[in-house]
Amino acid sequence: MRRLSVIVMILVVGAGTIGAATGASLKGTVTIVHGLPGFTADVYLDDELLLDGFSPTTATDPLQLDPGAYDLALRDLGAPADSEPVLSDTLSVSAGSDLSVVVHLTQGGTETVSTFENSFGQVPAGGSLLVVRDVAAAPSFWVRVDGRQRIQNLRSGNERAVQLEPGPHLLALEAVGSGEKLIPPSRIRLDEGVVQIVYVIGEESAGNLDLMLQSVANLRSRPTGVLTGVGGLAAERDAFPAWATLSMIIAGSGLLLSAMAFRPRRHD
Fold this sequence. Notes:
The protein is mainly β. It has one domain. It contains 2 helices and 17 strands. A hairpin with a 5-residue loop joins strand 8 and strand 9. The longest helix is centred in the C-terminal third of the chain and has 19 residues.
């Protein structure tokens, strides 16, 4: 089994940060996900350099942005700031919104930018949610979880969600009709109250289809009975060590604080 790219996004840091969370709710959260193979980019937001050397299968820290419209531009690494961007888009950010902005290929192989809203509500107590987003140049596919078909005919640019029991699961993608395995089966672990977003990225004809993970935590609903939680977050092809989960959760508040320090210009 191959490596699985992992993004972790911590939305709620704890009861001790209620004041900070209230201030952040007046802003919008934007995470830029790079799912475009072979393109290392410089990322600009409102003509200001946000990130240089943005590599495929990586993501920015969650950015806390004031409500408004922002110009996003991606240029080749080292290209002049006033050169024609390879990709550009306008981001519309509203107060309290949570957006994943994905750079990827369409089903026909054209570079594009897509925005997904991370609006999942409360996950039922004792459950978890798997969200699969197809942002690859690949045929429509079925999603099998533990050998059972759970999502049918997912097409490029779309997403589907399915509630699952917390714990380890085996995820497989099969081309519609032929049943051909598009990616080797991948082991993922779902925790109670966690939304696990799986991005299918790359290009089938180039043989570089892959998966990226983005996890949204702390969405537990109130239990209606006595339940046992799993605790922690892990994603694996072979194994994802528990110490890595803990270190990412501890680092989560630092990521949010560093992201809030970036305040790009906005359009009135």
